[in-house]
Write a structure and sequence with these properties.
Blueprint lengths: L7 E4 L5 H12 L3 E6 L3 H13 L4 E5 L7 H13 L5 E4 L14 H22 L8 E5 L12 H21 L5 E7 L13 H9 L9 H12 L9 E5 L6
The structure holds nicotinamide-adenine-dinucleotide (NAD).
Nicotinamide-adenine-dinucleotide (NAD) binds next to helix 1.
């Protein structure tokens, strides 16, 4: 069954990791997917190819979301592809930095907030004219916005900001029938969480979870597909924990 047939979707940071899994999952449900990437053109091509090979529709677009104009440039490209209707906006691209408080630089801090908060904010702003009744925005938050894990204070603050935006955007856009939510993964086995590649890292991650295995990007993509679907039509303004019961 294809629950998202006829819908258009943008997934940022879709060349790898969680974003890639989300793009593939939305396409499997019938959505036309715009695969955004920063610099990994080959990987983005592979995602588009896989979607098309499975009978779906996909295009790739590139924009550096760390620059002040990155979100504006991305929105312009997206509008030139989808025209005047975007149904699903998944703001997934993000960066992290694990360092003690004493070692974080001003540049690190600014970069984290530029990619993780400023870009999603202005992407929503710039794409709002293409969203209407039934459209939905899904951000990627994190477990660390609500619980301490590792030395991630500044990164955690960016995800706290996302949880705040979810509420404010949902309140502001509800009247237009636009839903806004976030998923908050725990530790997921991706390039970002490279500590999971060691046995100690894996054990550490699993020890804080109720479910005793490492999360895959597909575990997160399933929740995003649900939030994007009509089954989630009465859910807005929420951050959904998708973390195998982490730090309960
Ligand atoms: P990842 O590093 O594998 O992927 C991040 C994606 O964001 C990549 O496609 C990358 O190209 C893109 N990106 C980063 N900086 C960019 C920039 N300046 N311009 C354009 N694109 C840029 O990481 P992931 O684990 O797949 O993370 C995806 C999202 O999930 C992030 O927002 C992350 O904070 C969040 N998250 C991840 C975990 C985890 O354990 N992996 C846990 C909680 C939340």
């Amino acid at each position: 069954m294809t629950t998202l047939a006829g819908k258009t979707a943008l997934v940022t940071g879709a060349s790898r990791g969680i974003g890639r899994a989300i793009a593939l999952a939305l396409a499997r449900q019938g959505a036309q997917v715009i695969v955004h990437y920063g610099s990994a053109q080959k990987e983005a091509n592979a995602v588009v190819k896989e979607i098309v090979a499975n009978g779906g529709r996909a295009q790739k677009v590139s924009a550096d979301l760390s620059t002040p104009n990155g979100a504006h440039e991305l929105a312009k490209q997206v509008r030139s592809i989808i025209g005047d209707r975007l149904d699903i906006l998944v703001a997934n691209a993000g960066i992290s930095k694990a360092v003690p408080i004493e070692e974080l630089t001003v540049e690190d801090f600014d970069q984290l907030f530029a990619v993780n908060v400023r870009a999603p904010y202005f992407l929503v702003q710039q794409l709002l004219p293409t969203m209407c009744k039934g459209s939905t925005v899904i951000f990627t938050s994190s477990l660390v916005a609500r619980a301490v894990a590792g030395t991630l204070s500044a990164y955690a603050a960016t995800k706290g900001a996302i949880d705040t935006l979810v509420k404010h955007f949902a309140a502001a856009l509800g009247e237009r029938g636009i839903r806004v939510n976030a998923v908050a993964p725990g530790v997921v086995d991706t390039d970002m969480s490279n500590f999971t590649k060691t046995e100690t890292g894996r054990d550490r991650a699993i020890s804080m979870q109720a479910l005793k295995r490492l999360a895959t990007p597909e575990d997160i993509a399933g929740a995003v597909t649900f939030l994007a679907s009509d089954d989630a039509r009465w859910i807005t303004g929420d951050t959904l924990r998708v973390d195998g019961g982490s730090k309960l």
